[in-house]
Design brief:
The chain is an alpha+beta fold. It has three helices and five strands, in the order E-E-E-H-E-E-H-H.
């Protein structure tokens, strides 16, 4: 069973800050997906910012949504990268954050 999304905050550079009901949180970089199918609808940053929690995952006003297991897996993968601050593009963020996540078995 995967954790449910409880909050989502759009950040600069098409990144989402996502919190889960198990206490974990992470970042999801959406840039790699903006050229595919329904995600073309959120290429406009104003549309991208209209993201919200729907059931146990995230959805946009445009109707685009993501599989909750995908959201959780990608957030964990991004947190395993010690340079994740560069994904957000905010120089005020530290280069490394101790999230407390156990990433055993992740590649």
């Amino acid at each position: 069973m995967y954790p449910s999304v409880i909050s989502v905050v759009p950040k600069d550079n098409y990144v989402l800050e996502i919190a889960f009901n198990n206490g974990e949180s992470g970042l999801l970089d959406m840039k790699p997906y903006l050229d595919f199918g329904v995600f073309n609808r959120i290429r406009d940053y104003i549309s991208f910012e209209k993201v919200f929690v729907a059931f146990d995952t995230i959805e946009w006003e445009s109707g685009a949504d993501l599989d909750p297991e995908f959201v959780y897996a990608k957030c964990k993968k991004n947190l395993s990268n010690p340079n994740w601050a560069g994904i957000v593009g905010d120089s005020r963020l530290p280069e490394k954050i101790d999230t407390g996540l156990k990433l055993q078995g992740m590649k």
